[in-house]
Structure formats: structure tokens, C-alpha cells
Write a structure and sequence with these properties.
Elements: H1 23-35, H2 37-47, H3 51-80, H4 90-119
Length: 120
């Protein structure tokens, strides 16, 4: 650190030899570069209020972000799910109909045999 040189941003902490900002302000600058306008929104909407209001706003903001992420995950999961009931193919339907008709025919033949046996 160079004696007598202070951070250009906070104007209180000493700055590094080859940098304009102190370590804390360097981190803040990087955060602003990464997050963009979101940092300014947080500063204006949260940090400019008293502690109780800040906590309330933070909780509301977290709830909104969690809800948005949960909704997007649910939509994604719903898109990935197979249909609940798969529609049978035409051949399967026809096969079931034929099977039912055969059983119906067999039952009617059995009833007739039973009637004949009773008559004897």
C-alpha cells in the first residue's frame, strides 16, 4: 500500500499500489459488473430503508425469486413427463374387441350346452 493514497471510490480505505480501489470496493465493482442493474435496484429499494423495512423487502424478494424458479422447474418437469394415460394403438383396440367377442361367443355356446344338458 502506498501511504497517503486512498481508494477512489470509498475515499476512506487505503488502496493497493497498482489499483485505484481498496479490496472491498474492488469486490463491489466486480459485483456491479456481474449483476448490472440488479445491484442498483437493491441499493435503491433495500439499503435506503430502515432495518425492519430492509428485512421485509429482502424476504419478499427472496419469496418472488423462489416462486419464479419453482414455477420454471415445475413447467420443465411437466414438459418432461410422459402422458398419464398412453393411448392404445388401433391394433390393440381391435385385438381387445375380438377377444371380447370371442369370450361373448364362448359364453353363449356354454349357455346353450347347459340348456341342452338340462333338457336331457
Amino acid at each position: 500500500m502506498v501511504f497517503g493514497s486512498v481508494c477512489y471510490f470509498c475515499e476512506t480505505n487505503p488502496r493497493s499500489v497498482f489499483h485505484y480501489y481498496c479490496n472491498e470496493c474492488t469486490k463491489l465493482k466486480r459485483t456491479i459488473n456481474l449483476m448490472g442493474d440488479r445491484v442498483y435496484e437493491v441499493v435503491e429499494n433495500v439499503l435506503s430503508r430502515n432495518k425492519k423495512e430492509q428485512e421485509s423487502i429482502i424476504k419478499d424478494e427472496i419469496k418472488e425469486e423462489i416462486k419464479a424458479k419453482t414455477d420454471s422447474l415445475e413447467e420443465k418437469e411437466m414438459d418432461d413427463l410422459p402422458p398419464l394415460i398412453e393411448q392404445p394403438e388401433e391394433e390393440e383396440i381391435q385385438g381387445s374387441i375380438n377377444h371380447y367377442d370371442n369370450r361373448k361367443q364362448i359364453l353363449s355356446e356354454l349357455k346353450e350346452r347347459i340348456k341342452k344338458d338340462k333338457k336331457k
